[in-house]
């Protein structure tokens, strides 16, 4: 059945979500070549936004795309997830610390308003809206920390995370829990406590990263026991995020 016509950017996103879901549920297998034309027909989307979506998936490392052969799935490794969050840990805690020292009253008011909007989405159970506010809150912290140039880098890392992994909310934690992780960060920024802001941001990113790493590991190795999975999470996480 053809999908409803929406702007090209949304069509490319639909393509990305479809291919990601097929990769995760096994209906598209690594190593097999898939036709761009067949995918276009199957989704009822013209080839241009299909190619746009596939190129974004290739950039994130989920597929290998060839204009002549089509595309094939590249299996996501747990180390890919740990690598993404290592980069986030290198940037966001430091920026949150700077935001605690440099934020204006207006910027703080914006962060608090975004936090309240997240809470409202918790109450309504609107997950897409919640994560839209979540992204805006992280962006507001970047601006308050004087790091607007980091926004594109972090946007790309968040996009890669969404493409490569499942949502931690659906399987591991509630929207309320995610919201609660942001509260101490904003409190620390409000109090001008740079060390606390750095620590709380690092804790939030670490909690998310480890959950997504565990999901990816269990999806690839469903036979692992809980103890074995936890051991592998520790090994992979430590290998990528330990300070040398």
Automatic annotation (TrEMBL):
Coiled coil: none annotated. Keywords: DNA-binding, Transcription, Transcription regulation. Pfam families: FCD, GntR. Residues 9-76 form the HTH gntR-type domain. It comes from the Bacteria. This is GntR family transcriptional regulator. It comes from Corynebacterium striatum.
